[in-house]
Structures are given as C-alpha cells and as structure tokens.
Amino acid sequence: MALALVGCSERLEWREFRSADGYSVMLPGRAQTVARDVEFEGHKLPVSMTSTGVGSAMFALGMARLPAVIADDAAGRERAIAFANSLATKRVIPLVVCFLPGLFVWTLGPAFVQLFKMAETFIQVRNF
C-alpha cells in the first residue's frame, strides 16, 4: 500500500512517453532517449534507451528490435535476452563516468546556484 502511495506522489509527475517504435510507457518527469546500433550475431540491432531520474531514483526502458531470423527462433530469442542482460554490466563505467555526473548536476545544480547567490549576497552585505 505504501508503495502505491509513493507512486502517486506529486513529486514524481508521471507522464506518458510514446515511442516512434509503437510502444508507450508511463515515466516520471521528462524522459530522454538515446539510440545506437549494437552488433549481435552478425546483425546490427537498433537499440534505444529511454530514461528519466527523480531524486536518487532512476527509471529506464531499453528496447531492441530483433530481425525475423532471430525473433522466429526460440533459441535465438534466448541468446538475445542473455546478450541484453550482459550489456548492463558492460556499460557500468560509461554510466558512472558520463551519465551519473550529468544527473548529479541536473538534480543538484539549481540548489548550488541558489547557494552561490546567497553566499554572494552575504559577502556583499558584509563588505559594507
């Protein structure tokens, strides 16, 4: 019950995100999408990641469209799922080095700007 109440919080500001690929999902805040091609068994798979963050929480959805040769084969689908699950561990360093600092600046940046403005005002008043 408490989890349901947290999900309805005004702070999360849930919005529907509609993808050009034909799916829709509810995400809190304004979602951003990045896309790239990933090599898998000789095929280039278009992969997209849609994500948003609220405070310390991260919400994300990854999507890849499989070629018919792989999608029609149960073993091929299983290999694709195992490959997709392994991507998360391969992407930890870029996530920590590139994305998380940007998320940190995005969430705490306004607070630091206000803090610097207050410090500047305090210094100016003190100098008089």
How are the secondary structure elements laid out?
Elements: H1 2-7, E1 14-18, E2 24-28, E3 32-40, E4 43-54, E5 57-64, H2 68-71, H3 74-90, H4 92-127
Antiparallel strand pairs: 1-2, 3-4, 4-5
**What amount of the residues lies in strands?**
25-35%
General form: elongated
Using only C-alpha atoms, the radius of gyration works out to 21 Å
Query: What's the end-to-end separation, in Å?
Result: 56 Å
Along the chain, the helix and strand elements come as: HEEEEEHHH
Instruction: List the quaternary state of the chains.
Output: single chain
Largest sheet: 3 strands, antiparallel
**Residues in helices, as a percent range:** 40-55%
Structural features, described:
The protein has a domain at 2-90. It has four helices and five strands; from the N terminus they run H-E-E-E-E-E-H-H-H. A three-stranded antiparallel sheet has the order 3-4-5, with no helix packed on it. A two-stranded antiparallel sheet has the order 1-2. With 128 residues, it is α+β, with helices and mostly antiparallel strands.
Short key terms for the protein model shown above:
128 residues, alpha+beta, three-stranded antiparallel sheet, two-stranded antiparallel sheet, 4 helices, 49% helix, 30% strand, elongated, disordered N terminus
